Amino acid sequence: MMDFSLTNRVAVVTGAAGLLGRKHCAALAQAGAIVYACDNQAAQVRKLTEHLGPQHAGAYVDVTDPESITELRDMIMNEHGRIDILVNNAAMNDAVESPISSAEQSAFEQYPVQLFRRVMEVNVTGTFLMCQIIGSIMAQQGQGSIINIGSTYGVVAPDQRLYQDSNGAQLMYKSSAYPASKGAVVMLTKFLATYWGAAGVRANVLSPGGVQNGQSELFQQKYAQRTPMGRMAHPSDYEGALVFLASDASAYMTGHNLIVDGGWTAW
């Protein structure tokens, strides 16, 4: 069981102020890692790190800005001299609990190209930049674990029926931008696994299913009926998988998409 220990390893988590980001940080910290919780929401990150403990730190980072990421890298290297774990969790998602637009505006035919580009910039370019700038340090060290957060919608298409009301009227559409971006993250991860494998850097994807987060009762019921395990995920359901990918317990695992979705993609 010592293979699961992350004692004194330095971990970077982006999107740390989000629902899953907070859980990712807590899981890594509980396993012994020194966590840098990174987000563009500085106040929320400070509050998060207060709960994690004094050995952890919060940091502002804009994942789409190379200078911001470089400043983060240099700060961590000056303080610890290494970076062992990178969790790319920052993402834009047109979530059902806070719809970005009406059904008419979110339909593919009317979806704004500006928003499509912004989702790709954060979800794909942001992941690319974090891997390039932080991952390069890992390659120089000869070891490291990159965990890119994917989605079931990076593997299968959205089921638009989930976003209908009880009468079958479409409330919103899950856009093409999010699944396109998460599919790209999977392939970027496979590229990194082959490119840096000989350098001792492992790169894997953790693809979660839908997480319970204030959605309507109808949505949760429909999601549960679509899932073999009969429920949406709890935010804590991904902690074990994350620690597994970050630790030596997965030492011979790279280029893999670990799907944790209650069986959603089994049907």
Set down the secondary structure blueprint.
Elements: E1 10-13, H1 19-30, E2 34-39, H2 42-52, E3 57-60, H3 66-80, E4 85-88, H4 103-106, H5 113-141, E5 144-149, H6 177-196, E6 201-208, H7 217-225, H8 239-246, E7 257-260
Parallel strand pairs: 1-2, 1-4, 2-3, 4-5, 5-6, 6-7
Helix pairs in contact: 1-8, 3-5, 5-6
Question: In words, what does this structure look like?
Answer:
By secondary structure, the chain is of the alpha/beta class. It has a single domain (2-266), classed as NAD(P)-binding Rossmann-like Domain (Rossmann fold), CATH 3.40.50. It has helices at 19-30, 42-52, 66-80, 103-106, 113-141, 177-196, 217-225, 239-246, and strands spanning 10-13, 34-39, 57-60, 85-88, 144-149, 201-208, 257-260. It has a 7-stranded parallel beta sheet, sandwiched between helices. Helix 3 runs parallel beside helix 5 (113-141).
